[in-house]
Write a structure and sequence with these properties.
single chain; 166 residues; mainly alpha; all-alpha NTP pyrophosphatase fold; globular; UCP030140; dUTPase/dCTP_pyrophosphatase; dUTP diphosphatase
């Protein structure tokens, strides 16, 4: 997975959004951190990993993957805010299916790392957040290629949404 390419794509999208929305002079980091938290919850909802009271199956794989890459968009955008796009050394882990209990733990790990990044702002905290989020993707059975391809598709959708007044 070519994270440097994805960071550049995200930089272009962020600039486009900021121009379209008149946001160049606004501090957006806090909103991006909260947006990631919301996207993480939406992803958990689609996986249904925490819904012990329900027998309903998780959403279809493509829906979960699209929710997952929404989070990737915000993590990349957050990395750009901090200036860690050129120094990020994250690797996408091998994919494997895991139990619901492991996924629940993964979601809490990302939440913990997100709050730590907000507090510290360090490169290490960013990479820990990114790595823990990538682990969720791998534990959902997505390959790096799956994620990269879905990211590029969703990036196009996000730009089109801006053109349509989303």
């Amino acid at each position: 997975m070519n994270f440097f390419k994805l960071f550049e794509m995200q930089r272009t999208l962020d600039s486009y959004i900021e121009t379209k929305q008149g946001l160049h002079d606004e501090a957006l980091l806090e909103r991006k951190l909260l947006a990631l938290q919301v996207e993480l919850a939406e992803l958990a909802n689609e996986t249904r990993c925490f819904k012990f009271w329900s027998t309903k199956e998780p959403s279809e794989r493509d829906i979960i993957l699209e929710e997952y890459v929404d989070g990737i968009h915000f993590i990349l955008s957050i990395g750009l805010e901090y200036g860690y796009d050129k120094t990020c050394h994250c690797q996408y882990p091998e994919s494997e299916s895991v139990s619901k209990e492991v996924l629940v733990t993964d979601f809490f790990n990302v939440t913990d790392k997100l709050l730590n990044l907000r507090k510290e702002g360090s490169k290490e905290a960013f990479e820990a957040l990114f790595t823990s989020y990538l682990t969720i993707g791998a534990h959902l059975g997505f390959s790096g290629d799956d994620v990269e391809e879905a990211y590029m598709k969703k990036n196009d959708v996000n730009k089109q949404r801006q053109d349509q007044g989303y």
